[in-house]
Amino acid sequence: MSQTTQDLHLVSDFNLANFANVLKSKVGDGWKIRLGPLDQVVPFLSSTEADPKGHVWIWTRPERISPTFHSALQYRKAEADKVLMEVDHFADLLLAAAKRWHKLYVPLWQIPASESYGAGELNFASGVHALVLRMNARLCERVAEVPNIQVMLSDRWTQQAGPKAWSKRLWYLTKTLFPNEVFQAAANDFLSTRKLAQGHGIKLIVLDLDDTLWGGIVGDEGWQNLRLGGHDPTGESFVDFQRALKGLKERGIMLAIASKNEESTALEAIEKHPEMILRRSDFVAMRIDWNDKAGNIREMVKQLNIGEGSVMFIDDNPVERSRVQTFLPEVFVPEWPANKLLYEQELRRLNVFDLGSASAEDARRTLLYKEEGDRERSKAGTDSVETWLRSLDMKITAQPVNEADFTRVHQLFLKTNQFNLSTRRLSEKELQDWMDHADHELWSFRVSDQFGDAGLTGVLGLDLGSGPTALITDLILSCRVMGRRVEETLLHVAYTQALSRGKEMLKAIYLPTERNKPCLDFLLRSGMHTADDGHTFTWSMEQPYSCPGSLELIMPAATTKP
Amino acid sequence: MPTPETIEQLVLGVLLRMNEDLPASERVAWEASTPIVGDGGLLDSLGMANFLVQVEEAVEDQCGIDLSLSDQDLMDLFEESSLTVRAFSSSLSRKLNS
């Protein structure tokens, strides 16, 4: 896919020229940073300027948004209700702008914590610091339901910058509110946000055991003597670290183990230690042996059928970290603190987990992958792939996407990389608008078999507009169900829908990315005719595109749009 | 009191740190003879303001001296036809030692 440039407009009531430079130094050629005129926030938000693909960073000071709050900063009395009305007015402008732009980024308001406004500064009715808290809470409430407004936690940036986070020198010389340390942290958050929005978050954490998940060497000391829980600062910190990992697992992040140990010894510790928070069932895969960890991780990644770029490796041993990073360069290997008391803090500091909109499938992910493991093991006992597929007793339910499915379908649009025909990263609104078009059909596919329910794992998009050809716009399949004839089932449904509209031809245009070759590989073996360009595939409607016999397809009888 | 050499290193350190916040294409290979402002000067007005603030902070952090570079005497230096890193550092050193 060709690299397209995206615009990021910076709109503020203070000088963001330094922030623009910092962003330019970090974001690369894919972004064009556009610095708006100083202190023109309200005119910008009130204007009709629009770009459905454009991003806007709107960074304001609370006193510029609320004149009443400005009075409070001058040590005058301020009515909280009036301040909140002024916040509402700003929120209204944001909501209107969100309809014209792809995404808005709005840092929360701050004033320096060191500024003092007397004993009543946290007075809930009108204290200055209390007012800032209430302004931020009101803003968050007002925009919470709008997916393309991202409120940014700016406190984190000023905390990272430390006592020099507010520079009066820069303010009086250049009207720049913050030094570059704050802008660096903000730019990093922006990059993380974009990475997660594009489906590049971490899906699997691979963990070492000794001195990573517990204190001590289990093979030497025995599980009874590990430092885990109890009245021991180190033991307590390992329990907290495990609790945080367990929480991530419940939000859909998978956990695995890569440890150099005797397997039986390590498993005994996992099962028997009374303070273990993580038990065997919390791990989707384990490699506990004396083999090279990089090789073990590569095997687990292959088994789970996810990209190496979705994997994080945590190990206390810098030599192991270095080896894994060298041999698996796409795997994220964070520097890990030597001080064990800081493990949990370090985990929370990493902004690499997409926890914003967990779907039901996310919460069940570990179970789903365990079922996949059972399925693969059953494959070993059969003599051919077809026999194995029939033995799975697969059922696929296809239906037009409804409200209940929409979040998961949108997730698949954003996160699926390998089996994705066109990799259209649409916002929720763009997807909804596209779906609402009379000639467009969007189908969801649920896959289940005797081992379990893989859930909503496939999406088919069709443009059945005027003309003799039906265009497959989207062919998206989770890697969990690839290679089980679900691919052919999607094409079969595309065929039946095209037929019902009297089309003569079915067409798919493959748009290559760095990671979607599996989709091309399928199309090349799908039976469709391949054009000379190697990326356009067609099927004449004169010949039926059959549903695979190894599975049962359930779909509604009458499925044309009104 | 800091020596002129120490001040020159401090100033070069500030300029090199400023480079880190710039896009790669706008970074400068700063040396003692590189002009900061004036003919061939490499800092624009915002860059100069950033530079002054960071020099003030570096002098405060590293030498323990509270410095205000917005004083008129030093600002006058920037009206010279060309001010190199070394010339600026010498001036600053004289100011700090006066």
Would you write up a description of this structure?
The complex is a heterodimer of chains A (562) and B (98). Helix content of chain A is 40%, strand content 20%. Chain A is built from 22 helices and 18 strands. Chain B starts with a helix and ends with a helix. Chain B has a two-stranded antiparallel sheet with strand order 1-2. With 98 residues, chain B is mainly α. Chain B has helices at 4-19, 45-63, 72-75, 85-97, and strands at residues 35-38, 82-84. In chain B, helix 1 (4-19) packs across helix 2 and helix 1 (4-19) crosses helix 4 (85-97). Classes of the chains: A alpha/beta (562), B mainly alpha (98). The A-B interface holds A 15, 17-18, 21-22, 24-25, 164, 167, 169-170, 173-174, 179-180, 183-184 and B 20-24, 26, 46, 49-50, 52-53, 56-57, 70.
Brief sketch in words of this structure:
The complex is a heterodimer of chains A (562) and B (98). Chain A is of the alpha/beta class.
Fill in the keyword field for this structure.
heterodimer, A: 562 residues, alpha/beta, 22 helices, B: 98 residues, mainly alpha, two-stranded antiparallel ribbon, 4 helices, 2 strands, 53% helix
H and E string of chain B: HEHHEH
Classify the secondary structure makeup of chain B into a structural class.
mainly alpha
- Beginning-to-end CA distance, first to last residue of chain A: 35 Å
State the assembly state of the protein chains: heterodimer
Helix content of chain A: 40-55%
Count of helical regions of chain B: 4
Q: Largest chain-chain contact?
A: A-B, 17 and 14 residues
| Shape verdict of chain B | globular
- Please count the beta strands of chain B (DSSP E, at least 2 residues each): 2
Largest sheet of chain A: 9 strands, mixed
List segments of chain A where confidence is low: pLDDT < 50 over at least 5 consecutive residues: none
